[in-house]
Design goal:
mainly alpha; two-stranded antiparallel ribbon; rod-shaped
Length: 100
Amino acid sequence: MTSVHEHRPPLSVSEVAAYANLSERFIRRLIAERRIPFVKAGGTRIRFFPDDVDAWLEAQRVEAIEPPVAAHRVTRPLKVKTSTNGPKAKSDARERSAKS
């Protein structure tokens, strides 16, 4: 009987962490949450088949989305607020009252 995983030996937690560029702590969290396929060899040793790790990494892939085509932005003129309470407004009001 031949195994599908004969061509590459199983990996340890530290080897998977290095291979996936993740921390060992994160790999152990994935194991505890059973979010990554693993094998318990001898009851305590955790091992990973490289093909399973590759498949898991591929399943984590998030495809990029195409940015929307940039439409020409219509710019509106800025609204300029005129103050009715400032010193300039008061002097303008005095001038208007003096002319009348």
